[in-house]
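REQUEST ID: PR-0412
SUBMITTED BY: lab tech R.K.
PRIORITY: routine
TASK: structure prediction, single protein chain
INPUT:
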Amino acid sequence: MGAKSGRNKRGGRGGPKKATPQAGGRKGGGAAQRVGLILFAVVFVALFVVFAVAEGLGAPSVPSGDIALVSNAPEGLENISEAEYKASFGRQWAQAGLKKAPKAGSKKAEELHKASIEELLSKSWIFGEAEELGIKVTQKEVEKELEKVKKESFKTEKAFQEFLKEQNLTEEEVNQLIELRVIQPKIQEKVSKEAPPVTEAEAKAKYEEEEATAYTKPPSRDVRVVVNEDKKEVEEALKALEADNSEASWKKVTKKYSPTTEANAGLQKEITEEFLTEPLKKDIFSAKPGEVVGPVKQEKNYLLLEVAKVHPESVQPFSEVKTTITTTLTQEAEQKYFTEWVAGFQSKWTSRTHCASGFVIENCANFKGSSHPSTAPASCYEADPKKPPTECPAPVTANQPAVPGTVTVAEPEGERKPQGPLAPRSAAEGKGKKAAEKAAEGAAGAEEGSAAGQAETEAAVKAAEEAAAEAAAKEGK
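STATUS: complete
OUTPUT:
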């Protein structure tokens, strides 16, 4: 990584100065002079804006031979050259499994064109952010990570070298890619640790919220079982257990009559009602401990049952699960904090990135796009299209939050999680429909009132401006 210094420093302006009184002049000249200065200032600003647009002021120009300029990126990564773009584009279509470059202007070519620019910009952004965060990577770390990649993905050194040749990757590019691989988790770790710590009150609130489901064990039974398709053999087993139902006897009986439950002398631990069907549920949960029940018909089999132990419902105290809850909440808080940080990271570096004509994408500050989806036909948004569209996107895009843990600095959007259909409303929700409608009516009324108040305010401001202008005109006379 380069050792370029931080942000560019710009000199500040001084504070406002008091105007010096003018001596002499006819009465009212001061007011006329003020009006004249205001008019001059307006004209000057308008001319400056026109000049700035014409000359491209306010945005750095991308040097010839480059496709983009990233301000404040580390040394050597500010200027992204056309040569780098061509190399990246070549890798993109090779990775896509294409035998040759896609036809210029085709949909695939546009996809790879954008992906190539995004790859190069992302590299400059991540290295730049790492530098600003004070994150450094040693050569030893790069070498160690490279060896790990080789071991995981390539059988031999020869296979690795062949891969580099196929992808047109130089040794410097490989080192940069490996360095990025090392830097990204370091950035995430450093940023995530800035998330506010989870308090005991928050952990206790989470415990109380999930106490009935996550931390409460339902009643259960430890049950010994004999299973056999032959009813006569089950009846023989019953006779043996009625004479002696000790653990030693169960071992002998299950070995002879129930090989599938022979382990642990037929004992099945902590069986709960939710996993049982009738008549087993009733037989097990109504039986007394030590009582042998059966034969019970269950599909093709006959069963003998004995409740060995009863486990009543139990609740884990907060003290036992506090650490687990706090750890889970901390991970969630750090992921949320990092996801929000990534949005700011992307916005910051986009504002620092200017792209040359033909290479402008959404990641460039000089990108000017419509709010329409790029995949939607233009006719979807025309008042009277010559050829009506066959399909247009919905006016409201369904929300697709990222799967937790998939957001990274290289993949700001993360892995999107599709949203399923809304669940049917409950009866209680149905009863509350009228109340919701009334609340909506009240909100609409309040909004109308707010709009009326705003109109009154705007009218008052306009009247005040007109009065001031009239007073200034009279003074000038």
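NOTES: The chain has 13 helices and nine strands.
REVIEWED BY: pending
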